Amino acid sequence: MIRTLVIENGQKPTKEQLKEVEEAKKTPIVFDEDCEELSPAMLKAFQSAVVQRNRKRKA
Fold first, then answer.
1. pTM of structure
2. Which of 2, 19, 35, 42 has a CA that sits 20 to 30 A from residue 27's CA?
3. Are 17 and 6 in contact (CB under 8 A)?
């Protein structure tokens, strides 16, 4: 199940929301044919792309 929650600037999450996040941390990641596990090379390329995107956002 996927849940999306928007928190505005300055807004703090409720205790219930924090509890949900803590429980979600314990849930294992399940890969399937639509979302396969990344190879080490693909993971490195993805992480590099994220770093570059974040640098552009700061500028």
1. 0.48
2. 42
3. no
